[in-house]
């Protein structure tokens, strides 16, 4: 346990030093929010556009942190032999995967917090304290799905395959999940099954004071189970090739 | 020394690893005893790396049993009793050497002070450099440092001095001797035969996944045919020379004859008794490298002969 925590701390330190990673997880949602939050005066998913876009950008930040950087780094570290080296130490067998997930979740906290603060003080979103906390937790925990997906991809694919495949999955889920623009009609009938949509919709329902449908929460849990299962299979299948 | 009991540190019992029809390791049995420095010698593809991978719980044997300190390899590794450095091992990028060594030291149940590890591995001067900006030799030293971050009982090294220059290699073996002097058992694979000759007190020769020879460097040399004779003999008759007592192999180039023999006296007397008068006669001991080549070449020939009827059966 102590070893896993030490590795987690080192992983967080590395991520903080990685400028590109910090830009995609932190700067990207912040800049998009500043540019777009006040560009529309509409009601989306039952809340003001500024509130919807705040939730969408916080989701973008946390889901990006969980997937894009991690999948590529895991594939690269497997190829370079660092994962193999760690297996020769007393670190528990699952220590590396656990450290990667916790580090990705930890590094996504600032982007969620900063976007929500922007929503409050730039976007003029007013909510009760309980709603703020619930939204932050939903958007943040929802990213667990992508953290598990990153393990599944990173363990299964070569580094040069990970980049295009992770980006493809990422953008498909962002676009049909209604992160860049709200979903309507046919797109919504498909997109409503994505974890990105489910996280955003749960959070906007909380913001709008509506009761959260149980099927949205169940949907996120099912995605987490599917991606965790895939991750487990990937780690197991590659046990002899790291 | 916290090795409990008097059993072997490592034991392989009829261990095999097959990849489809390829037998990377084929019925390997061996024991390592506490405090030994053992060199694992073998040509590329002999099964050295696969054997070390299985010993370190990175791969599972297809059949057979491996024990380390009386438990299975996985638990021995996770209890911190083994320090290992593999060729395929890598380093974590984006951190400094000091940060990396400190991290891995923190994973050990019985950590060695970081300063001691840095000194033993000779990496004090690069402690503040980024791991991903090191030269090949520096990287190798950092990988070695990671192997000695804990107070382990067994050190396993795969080709440890690859990419090191001569001076670094000498410093490396000096620090290795410090470790062994504390009573640790050392197992290393190498293709530098002089290194095995100088550092090891026991050599295991493996070829095609099987153990071919196991003994002190002197015994290995003796086994291959202890002596090398060379002389000039115009019109030498090869079949006759091969039939001389003790001869294991001959090489005739023009008038010059090289003979490997297990009994140079008997070979020489028989040659003289037959009426030959060789000139420029030299008799010398066989180096480990020649012994190694002789042993593995004999095995390859035996393997080819054994394989011949199978090939003949194919349409």
Based on the model shown, name its key terms.
heterodimer, A: 242 residues, mainly alpha, 12 helices, globular, B: 315 residues, alpha/beta, Rossmann fold, Alpha-Beta Plaits, six-stranded mixed sheet, four-stranded antiparallel sheet, 13 strands, disordered C terminus
Q: What is the structure about, briefly put?
A:
The complex is a heterodimer of chains A (242) and B (315). With 242 residues, chain A is mainly alpha-helical.
Overview of the structural elements:
The complex is a heterodimer of chains A (242) and B (315). Chain A has one domain (2-237). Chain A is mostly helical and 242 residues long. A two-stranded antiparallel sheet of chain A has the order 1-2. The two termini of chain A are 22 Å apart. In chain A, 50% of the residues are buried. Chain A has helices spanning 2-17, 19-36, 49-80, 82-87, 95-107, 109-121, 129-142, 144-156, 159-176, 185-191, 195-207, 214-237, and strands at 43-44, 47-48. In chain B, helix 6 links the parallel strand 6 and strand 7. In chain B, helix 4 packs across helix 5 and helix 8 packs across helix 11. Chain B has helices at residues 48-55, 73-78, 97-106, 114-121, 136-147, 166-181, 193-199, 217-223, 238-242, 264-273, 288-313; strands at residues 10-19, 22-32, 37-41, 63-68, 82-85, 154-158, 185-190, 202-207, 210-215, 227-232, 247-253, 256-261, 279-285. Chain B has 2 domains: 10-220, Rossmann fold, CATH 3.40.50; 225-285, Alpha-Beta Plaits (2-Layer Sandwich). With 315 residues, chain B is of the alpha/beta class. Chain A binds chain B through residues 2-3, 6-7, 10, 13-14, 17-18, 77, 80-85, 87-93, 240, 242, and chain B through 56-60, 74, 77-80, 82, 84, 86, 88-95, 99, 103-104, 106-109, 143, 146-147, 150.
């Amino acid at each position: 346990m102590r070893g896993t925590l030490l590795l987690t701390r080192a992983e967080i330190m590395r991520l903080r030093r990685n400028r590109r990673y910090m830009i995609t997880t932190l700067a990207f949602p912040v800049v998009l929010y500043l540019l777009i939050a006040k560009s529309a005066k509409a009601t989306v998913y039952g809340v003001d556009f500024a509130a919807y876009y705040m939730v969408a950008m916080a989701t973008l930040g946390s889901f990006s942190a969980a997937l894009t950087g991690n999948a590529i780094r895991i594939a690269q570290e497997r190829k370079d032999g660092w994962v193999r080296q760690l297996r020769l130490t007393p670190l528990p067998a699952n220590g590396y995967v656990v450290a990667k997930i916790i580090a990705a979740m930890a590094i996504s906290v600032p982007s969620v917090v900063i976007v929500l603060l922007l929503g409050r003080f730039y976007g003029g979103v007013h909510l009760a304290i309980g709603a703020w906390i619930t939204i932050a937790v939903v958007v943040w925990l929802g990213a667990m799905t992508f953290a598990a997906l990153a393990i599944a991809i990173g363990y299964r694919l070569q580094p040069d395959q990970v980049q295009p495949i992770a980006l493809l999955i990422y953008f498909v889920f962002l676009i049909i999940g209604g992160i860049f623009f709200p979903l309507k009609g046919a797109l919504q009938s498909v997109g409503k099954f994505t974890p990105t949509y489910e996280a955003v919709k749960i959070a906007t329902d909380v913001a709008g004071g509506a009761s959260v449908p149980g099927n949205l929460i169940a949907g996120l849990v099912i995605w987490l189970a599917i991606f965790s299962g895939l991750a487990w299979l990937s780690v197991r299948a590659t046990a002899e090739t790291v | 020394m916290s090795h409990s009991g008097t059993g072997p540190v490592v034991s392989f019992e009829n261990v095999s690893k097959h990849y489809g029809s390829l037998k990377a390791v084929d019925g390997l049995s061996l024991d390592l005893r506490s405090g030994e420095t053992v060199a694992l010698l073998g040509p590329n593809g002999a099964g050295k790396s696969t054997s070390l991978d299985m010993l370190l719980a990175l791969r599972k044997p297809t059949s057979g049993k491996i024990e380390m300190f009386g438990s299975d390899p996985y638990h021995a590794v996770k209890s911190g009793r083994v320090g290992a450095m593999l060729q395929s091992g890598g380093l974590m990028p984006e951190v400094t050497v000091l940060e990396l060594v400190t991290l891995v030291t923190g994973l050990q149940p019985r950590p060695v002070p970081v300063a001691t590890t840095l000194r033993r591995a000779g990496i004090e001067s690069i402690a503040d450099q980024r791991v991903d900006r090191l030269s090949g030799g520096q990287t190798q030293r950092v990988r070695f440092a990671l192997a000695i971050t804990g107070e382990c009982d067994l050190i396993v090294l795969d080709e440890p001095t690859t990419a090191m220059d001569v001076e670094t290699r000498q410093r490396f073996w000096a620090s290795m001797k410090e470790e062994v002097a504390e009573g640790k058992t050392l197992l290393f694979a190498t293709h530098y035969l002089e290194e095995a000759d100088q550092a090891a007190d026991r050599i295991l020769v493996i070829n095609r996944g099987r153990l071919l020879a196991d003994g002190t460097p002197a015994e290995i040399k003796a086994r291959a045919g202890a002596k090398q004779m060379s002389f000039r003999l115009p019109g030498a008759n090869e079949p006759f020379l091969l039939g001389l007592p003790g001869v294991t192999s001959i090489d005739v180039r023009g008038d010059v004859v090289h003979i490997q023999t297990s009994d140079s006296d008997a070979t020489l007397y028989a040659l003289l008794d037959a009426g030959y008068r060789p000139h420029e006669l030299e008799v010398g001991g066989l180096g480990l490298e020649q012994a190694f080549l002789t042993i593995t070449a004999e095995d390859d020939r035996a393997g080819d002969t054994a394989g011949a009827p199978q090939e003949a059966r194919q349409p």
